[in-house]
Design a protein that fits this description.
Elements (H helix, E strand, L loop, with lengths): L1 H28 L9 H10 L11 H18 L16 H12 L1
Helix pairs in contact: 3-4
Length: 106
Amino acid sequence: MSESLAHVAALMLVSPLLLGILQRTKALAAGRRGASIWQPYFDIRKLLGKEVALSRTTSWVFFAAPAVAVATTLLAGLLVPLGSHRSPLSFPGDFVLFTYLFALGR
């Protein structure tokens, strides 16, 4: 159980860092300076501090979509092994579930 929690924590904490490194590398390859590699963390902190703006005419789908996107991404991340550890959710056919989870998130 603690290994699964460590897996989820690593997914949530390392993913923005990888995004920052990717954006910085692309900027350097294009001849620009680019943002800091910590910029995705700053963006997440800023977005979590904002208020929710919902219209009265939207349905429950509009409210549930961000939660479904995060849940499917984390669940798909649990199907991928990190380092020498095996994935917390592994079974025959997990690649099919991996593909369907990302399709559901879209």
